[in-house]
């Protein structure tokens, strides 16, 4: 590894990375509460981190014929991105023998929601609020600030899933993560298209909206890994 290699050019200052966009969409704009349970949102965010690193060319899902077993995650470019959250994930992926996406989702997802929400608060896209019930139970929420960035993001999803505009690779990755936790209808709200049709369209976008084969392979692998992890979490232990 070349420890003196210069950092890659990461996202421009002010632009959100994929994991931030997914987190923003999975928080209700008014109530500020997550629209999916903590285990699912953390897995979706971990999946978004992996897809961000794959899209940048730094991590890839190994294919057939490589020295690494097919389906394992490998670091192709260890240079830092300039984004601390992504750089820590890159370090952790590269610090171990190549592992499966399921393993890395479980490795990366712990505490991810809190970290990403704190980033969104610092950027002024969410507000952090806290109240107590009976002076004992603490309830936290993160209402939207109604930023232009969020409006642009939600409009893009509407254009792709309701109007039918072709999705960019980045948009397809967002849709794929939302679909993996079955929250596309919830995120879009009342748009004149029923939930079943929105799910169908989201699957089509996730399955066919990516021309880049490395990203396509990663989306498939992450989706399959999330299904395995979530299924395992719901299977009762034998008595």
How would you describe what is shown here?
InterPro entries: GPP34-like, GPP34-like_sf. Keywords: Golgi apparatus, Lipid-binding, Membrane. The N and C termini lie far apart (48 Å). The longest helix is centred in the C-terminal third of the chain and has 22 residues. The chain is 52% helix and 7% strand. It has 239 residues and is mainly α. It has ten helices and four strands. Helix 2 runs antiparallel to helix 10 and helix 7 packs parallel to helix 10. The protein has one domain: yeast vps74-n-term truncation variant domain like (yeast vps74-n-term truncation variant fold), CATH 1.10.3630.
Secondary structure elements and their pairing?
Elements: H1 18-25, H2 38-55, E1 59-61, E2 73-75, H3 84-94, H4 101-108, H5 112-122, E3 129-133, E4 137-141, H6 148-163, H7 169-180, H8 184-188, H9 195-208, H10 213-234
Antiparallel strand pairs: 1-2, 3-4
Protein name: Golgi phosphoprotein 3 GPP34
InterPro entries: GPP34-like, GPP34-like_sf
Main location: Golgi
